[in-house]
Design brief:
Elements (H helix, E strand, L loop, with lengths): L9 H18 L3 H27 L3 H27 L5 H24 L8
Helix pairs in contact: 1-2, 1-4, 2-3, 3-4
Length: about 120
Amino acid sequence: MVTKRFQELQVYQLSERLADDIWRIVDGWDVFAKSTIGQQIVRSADSIGANIAEGFGRGSYQENKRFVKIARGSLNETQHLLRRAYTRHLLTPEQIKSIQIIINELAPKLNSYLNSIGQLPHNK
């Protein structure tokens, strides 16, 4: 049986990339924007990967699926906050385009990962 670490999962790596890109963007905002929507968007983006990691380590398919669903919810929250940030002129069209590329790859991979739990040998 082949065992994978969660860090090797492509869905996890994409979630890290998204969170890091958002962090770098928010880091350049003014104090008000950072302390309001900035902190929330960084937390929601970080939550995606954190929940993938936690679910992976829970030891049961049911628990893993539950945490991946939470990660999916965090991705939706992140998308909502990105829309708000863009509407408030905190994000450039280029930044949105770059982030959207990651989201367009991450969202279906997150769903595929959820559907695969219990079917692949790397899941506990």
